[in-house]
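Field: COMPLEX_INPUT
Field: COMPONENT_COUNT = two
Field: RESIDUE_TOTAL = 227
Field: MODE = joint
Values follow.
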Amino acid sequence: ILNVEQSPQSLHVQEGDSTNFTCSFPSSNFYALHWYRWETAKSPEALFVMTLNGDEKKKGRISATLNTTEGYSYLYIKGSQPEDSATYLCALRSNSGYALNFGKGTSLLVTP
Amino acid sequence: EAGVAQSPRYKIIEKRQSVAFWCNPISGHATLYWYQQILGQGPKLLIQFQNNGVVDDSQLPKDRFSAERLKGVDSTLKIQPAKLEDSAVYLCASSLVGGGNQPQHFGDGTRLSIL
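Field: COMPLEX_OUTPUT
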């Protein structure tokens, strides 16, 4: 079981603010990193799957970067909207197994 | 495309009773996953199927949990007998292949409460 750490645990921002979260993981045996968004009473939704060091991916106002050498990924949200309120989960797959190891998530609340 | 279907959405049982959950993955997805998400924790993989074969069940408490994926399509997860610590959301997910570089598509989950 791999230790995937996410910070902060929770975050409360105002509409229009930009924000970012961190996912930290053991840098050895890296295979792929996933980001998911999980809104209350809905199913988790895949945002990004990242495999290459230096990868940057973007989906609308959300983007992510990956540094496999130092073992971290950042998720950025530009101009947060109330509909961005959700738990953002990071998950790592290593070379030594098939399982995705999830962090505990960052809970984001965006208020008008 | 239709998403991953799970049932029931909610289930309340007493400890030592049995319960079963059902999952129908996205059509054509070879890999199916069952996760357990306890409040305050991230989802934990219980079992991963590739078609109807088990790829990883290392974290499945086999003394009380069982899962099957007959015919390589839908799947059931059973708990018998349930313990208080089994209270959690049980998520089913599927992906085209199981290599880890494909996104997983999740169902809405089953919220299980043990009294």
